[in-house]
Design brief:
The protein has 53 residues and is α+β, with helices and mostly antiparallel strands. The chain has a domain of 36 residues. Helix content is 28%, strand content 11%. The protein has one helix and two strands; from the N terminus they run αββ. A two-stranded antiparallel ribbon has the order 1-2. A hairpin with a 4-residue loop joins strand 1 and strand 2.
């Protein structure tokens, strides 16, 4: 597990415990062919999920 994944998981847990928690983006995902950018702030511990940007 890398540091970005640890921060994303910690943000996910904190957002469950504190409903008003508003974390900053942790990584920037860029798909040049699609012209899409994603700025995830958190993930949950249940495993990877697909999302649309």
């Amino acid at each position: 597990m890398d540091s970005a994944q640890r921060v994303l998981l910690a943000n996910g847990q904190e957002s469950i415990e504190i409903p008003d928690f508003d974390p900053a983006p942790v990584v920037k995902l860029f798909a040049p062919g699609a012209g899409a950018t994603g700025l995830p702030t958190q993930i949950d511990s249940e495993g990877p999920r697909k999302f649309l940007c």
